[in-house]
Amino acid sequence: MSDKIIQITEMNKWFGDFQVLKNINLEVEKNKKIVVCGPSGSGKSTLIRCINRLEEHQEGSIIVDGNELTADTKDIEKIRAEVGMVFQQFNLFPHLSILDNCTLAPIWVKKMPKKDAEDLAIQHLEKVQIADQANKYPGQLSGGQQQRCAIARALCMEPKIMLFDEPTSALDPEMIKEVLDAMVNLAKAGMTMIVVTHEMGFAKEVADEVIFMDEGMIVERAETKEFFANPRSDRTKLFLSQIL
Amino acid sequence: MNKLNFLQPDKNNLNTYLYTGVILVALSIFIVFLNSFFKKDLISFLPGTLSFFLPLILGFIGLHLIRIEYSGLKFLDSINKNINTNNFNAFLSLLIVFVVIKSLPPLLSWFILDANIAGDSKDVCTGTGACWTYIKIWFNRFMYGMYPNAEQWRINLSFIALAFLGTIGFFATEKFKKYLTLYYVVIYPVIAFFFIFFFISGGPIFFDFSYGIIAAVISVIIGFFIPSKFKMYYFIIVPITLYILLKYVFFYEELIELGKLEALEWVETGAWGGLSLTFIVSFFCLIFCFPIGLFLSLGRRSDFPIIKYFSIGMIEFWRGVPLITVLFMSSVMFPMFLPEDMFIDKLVRVIIAISLFEAAYVAEVIRGGLQALPRGQYDAAKSLGMGYWKMHILVILPQALKLVIPGIANTFLALVKDTPLIFVVGLLEIVGMLNLAKTNPEWLGFAMEGYVFASVLFFIICYAMSKYSYNLEQKYKTER
Fold it and tell me: Which residue, B270, B299, B475, B479, has most beta carbons within 10 Å?
C-alpha cells in the first residue's frame, strides 16, 4: 500500500456532455516511470492534469501520496506543491528572470529563505545545464532551454512526482534531445514520473511501463518491452505501426 | 530608365535639377512667407486665381525636380525619404508647410504681439490680441478658488510635501525597494489624505495631525540608523512615544485652549477650488479607483456566484449611468438616505462617486489584460502550489497590468478631464472658476483667454501623464 503513490479508481470525467475519461483505474508505485501514449484527443493530457487537479474529475477517486483530491482547496495547494508539472508550452513566467522563475514558488509557497532558494535553483539549473542563463529572461532563451528551465523550476519545489505533458511537442527536432537528456537524467535519479509523449525512443529507454489510451479509456498497460514486442489489442498494434 | 520622362533627374545631371528645384521651392515658400507676415504680394500682377495657386505650383515642380532616388547628400535624401516620396506626398507636404506659415502670424499676434499683460484692470486691454491681464488678475482664483488668500500657503506646502514624498521611490536604497509598493499603495495615499483633509481643511484637529506628521517624519529619519533586527519594535514604539511627547509635554493642550497656540483656520471644502481642487479630486479618484477597479475585475472572473454577480452588477451599473447624474445623485439624493445627524462632506461624496464610476472602466480595462494572458500561466502557477492570491499577485497581475498600461492611462486621462463636471454639485475647479470669472460684470468678454489658459494647463497635465505612462511601458517591457 505504502509504495502506491498514485491511486486512481473508477474515475470519470466529462467536459460538458462529452465524456473525456471513462472508468480510469491506475496505480503508480513510487519511483516508477510511466509513459502514456495514444492518439490526440484520447484524454492523456486530461488524465495527468487530473492528477494535480488542474482539471476536476466528477466521479471516482484520485489519491495522491495518501491524500484524496477533493474540492477542499487548502489541501489541493499542498498536494500540487508535491507534484511537479512540465507543460507542452513551457509556461515560464515571462516577467521574471530564469532564476526568479525557479525561486518564486520555493520562497512564497514553501517560505524558504531567499538565499537557500537561490542555491537550490542554481543547483537544479546546473543539472539541466542552463545555470549560465540564470539572469536572462525566458524570451531570450531557445525553446529547449526554456523547457529545461521549466523542468528545473518544477524540481525546485522538490516534488515527489513529476508530470510531463508532451514536453517535447513544441520543440524543434534539434532541441528535443537536450530536453529528453534532462528527463533521462531525472529518471535515473529515481524520480517518480508520468510522461505523456510521442517519443517512443524515450519510452523504450526509460519507462518501466507504457500505457496506451484511446477515446478516454486505458486500452493497454504493459511492461515496456512487452508493450513494444507483443501489443495485445489491435488498436495498439495499429497505433504502433503508424508511429514506429 | 524611361527616356520620355525628361523631368526625371538622375545622378548625372544632379546639379542642374538640384539648383532649379531648390530655387523654385524656396521661392514658393518665400512668396507665402512675405504674403503672410508682411502682407506683401509679390505676384499680385497675375490674375487672382493664378496668384493664389502659383506658390503651390512652383513648389510642386521644385519638389519634383529634386526627387532623386539616391543623391548621396544626406539632407536631400532625408527630405526625399520623409516628405517627398511621390507627387501626392509632395503636394500634401507643401500644403501643410503653407498652412503653418499662413496661420502663424494671426496666432502670434493674438497670443503675443497684440496681447496685453500689463496693468490690473480691463481698460489696458485695447489691442486686438489676448488680454492676459485677465488671467493675471484672476490667477489666484484660478489656482485656489475661493480659498482665503492668506491661507493659500497651506495648499502650496501640502502639494510640495506630497510631491516630495511621491519622489521617495527614486531615492530608496535597495534595502527599502521591496517596501515601495506598500508605500505607494497604502501609506502614501493615507498620508495624502491626512494632508488634504486636515492641513488644507484646517481646524482644531490640525494639531493632532501635525503631531502625527512630525512624529512619523522624525521616526523615519532615525529609522534609517536602526539595525533591522529591532525595526519591528522601533516603528511601533517610537512614533507613539513621540506623538505623546509632542501632544502632552511640548505643546500643552491648555496653551491651545488659551489661544496662545492657534490652530489653522478652518476652510470648508465649498471654498476650495481652482486648479488645486482639480489636482485634489483627480489625485484621490486615481488612487481610489485603481484598487477598486482591480478587485472588481478579479471579482468578475471569480468562481463564487455572489462575488461574480456583485462585480458584474457594479461594473455595468456605473458604466451605464452618465457621470453628471452620478454626481448629481451624490449631492442631492444620497444625503436623503443618511441618518439625520450624519453628514458626509460634499467633496468626499464627489470623490467617492467619481472613484466608483471610473473604477468600473478600470475594471474592464484590467479584465482585458487578464484575458490576454495564456491559460498556461494560470496552470503553471497552480502546479507550483500557489493559491489564488499568490498566483494573482506574483504571476498574473504583474503581467496583466503591464499589458494594460496604455488602457489605464487612457482611463486616467479621461478622469482628469472629467473633473470639471463637479460644477454640478457647486464645486468649482479650474473650468468652474473660469465660468464664474467670465460672468463677472467687470470682466465680461474674456472667455477665450480663460479657456485657452485652461486648455494649456490641462494639456500640460495630461501630456505629462501620458509621457509617464509611456515611460512605465518602456520600463516594464520584456520579451515574451
Answer: B299
